[in-house]
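Sequence, structure tokens passed on for absentees:
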Amino acid sequence: MVADVWFIPAVFPANPSASIRHPNLAMRHNLPGHVTLLLCLIGAGAAQITPRPQNPNPGTRGQSRTDELEDSWERPRLPKGTVSLMGGTVATVDPIRDRIVLRAFGGRDVTIDFDTRTQVLRGTTVVSSREIRPGTRIYADTIMIAGRMFAKTLRLEGNGAAGETEGQILEYNWSKQLLRVRDSVSQEPVLVRLTSRSQLMLGGEPAPTTSLMEGTVVAIRFHASSEGPSEAERIDILARPGSSYTFTGTIAVVDLHDEHMTLVEPEHQNTFEVALGSLPRQSKASLRTGMQVTVRARFDGHKYLAESVEPVRSAQEPVQAPQ
């Protein structure tokens, strides 16, 4: 390395202890001549020092230590596997463990994990996981990781989007045309407004608003409104207190001790709880899980009371000729 040698012309006074006036402090300092020479050399050398250029790309070498640590922390990719779609209402949210309990359509509670790899959407817009709150209706694309259910995608019910609910009527305000229904999944009240465009149907036929009695079971399709309660598009009356209904399905659960059974209607996957107390003992004893049956039951405003339960004959089963 070759050192730079600087030659600085200087005129030294005859008196080596010449006075130097400080320009700011107006103070006098008597400095020896060799000190003056040294200061001149240091000042000239400093003037030739080129400042180190800043990194033009602060996102690479100029990153903070925190950013580097965040970039280096990468979660493993989600494994490939069968994706299951599950819908329901959020019952609880655990932001510490990144976990929600979803009250799935059908009534059972399911625990679902999520983290930064989970995509949270409202419509087509990506939103924060803080938008997930108890009572939010969501659909989850889930996979299994280490024996636990994990959400790849959580789709939140969007503002202005169509929604559905099913439950029992709590109250209908005739003057304001407001219908309050207890949702069968969340058990929370849902308020909708009827308009001139709302369809009210009973058995596939138009029905009057007098059919909206307390205790009536209804299925409602609605869309959100920015000016108040959601507006009902269609209301289907499923059961009215005191009326009898006939439906066919598969017995999912039969409990002779509590005298009730759970029936699943395959066409719409509707589930009915049917009380068996009014049936003869022989009829109840013949019921088995998995049987296809036709049930005639009366709805009392709280549950269905079985009036008759008949097994469904298969097409291959021969019909006995009358004697």
